[in-house]
Write a structure and sequence with these properties.
Length: 209
């Protein structure tokens, strides 16, 4: 397994992907955007004409497809990078991500991916600190005001972001919640570099204990 895991959770638009990618670059570590994995499964389900409420069909799909997230998001070799942020995907992804079997399949893939990394890894999502990597070296929970998160999303208005917050935090399978031992960072009106610097300081302090 990689020498260290920094797990980053938080609601939509809190800056998880941007901060995690920049942090991984600064540390020279690997990076995994787990949200892109759920979105990729959603895109493929819609492309196949599947009912996203069909739990069995979605579970079978999640277990059978081949996914990559870097340098581009692909499903079975098909580039879906430009489709994963579409309005159609935005409306369906919370349903797909709430499917317990889909989540089980994705968690397995995420852990296998981390195990294969030769260096430390930064993983971000909505259940990373609480479910996927509960023993992570460092746990971070990013947040920001609803207005700021909606502005960052660009493709979603405040009502859409708030609706996803409600779905993500109330689902039965791996709901979004703050781990009791996570460091909370409010990214409102802060630069990516500033947030990355704070996380690196947290990592340094954690290692010196």
């Amino acid at each position: 397994m990689s020498e260290a895991v920094i797990a980053i959770d938080g609601p939509a638009g809190s800056g998880k992907s941007t901060v995690a990618r920049a942090l991984a670059g600064a540390l020279g570590w690997s990076f995994l955007d787990t949200g892109a994995m759920y979105r990729a499964v959603t895109v493929e389900a819609l492309a196949r004409g599947l009912d996203v409420h069909d739990a069995g069909a979605l579970a079978e799909l999640a277990n059978s497809v081949t996914l990559t997230t870097l340098p581009r998001v692909t499903v079975n070799g098909r580039d879906v990078e430009d489709e994963i942020r579409s309005e159609t995907t935005n409306l369906a992804v919370s349903v797909v991500a709430a499917n317990p079997e889909v989540r089980r399949a994705m968690v397995r893939r995420q852990r296998e991916w981390a195990d294969a990394q030769p260096v430390g890894t930064v993983v971000e999502g909505r259940d990373i600190t609480t479910v996927v990597f509960p023993d992570a070296t460092l746990k971070i929970y990013l947040t920001a005001s609803l207005e700021e998160r909606s502005r960052r999303r660009g493709d979603e208005d405040a009502d859409s972001v708030a609706r996803r917050d409600q779905v993500d935090s109330s689902r039965a399978a791996s709901p979004l919640r703050q781990a009791h031992d996570a460091t909370v960072i409010d990214t409102t009106d802060r630069t990516v570099e500033d947030v990355v610097g704070e996380i690196i300081r947290c990592l340094t302090a954690q290692r010196s204990r």
